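User: Can you predict the 3D structure for this chain?
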Amino acid sequence: MRDRRRQTSVDIDLDDNEATVEIVERRRRRVPDLFDEDGELRLWEDNFGWSGYKLEDGRFFRVNYHKRNDEWLEHSNVSPDDVVESIRDHIKDPKAGAAGRFVRRCSPP
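Assistant: Here is the predicted structure, written as structure tokens:
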């Protein structure tokens, strides 16, 4: 789903011979299938591994996986509210993915 709204305001100052235009555009996008078929939600990854969340047997885990050692550096049970808040913060973060590759599905617009 994509929804776009645009709001424009214009201030004109004839004494200074200028106009100031402010354009605010709101976009709404649907992000389906947050967790893939393996129950993984990768928020960040690089050549060494990835971090995000894993859904196993109806439970959520915050994970950090290291490819070279083929092991979980973190695999801790979290609440659904923690997952929701983390995804929300991640999408809103303009610096998310500054290191490594930011996974596209949950990238900030």
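The mean pLDDT is 84. The first strand starts at residue 2 and ends at 13.
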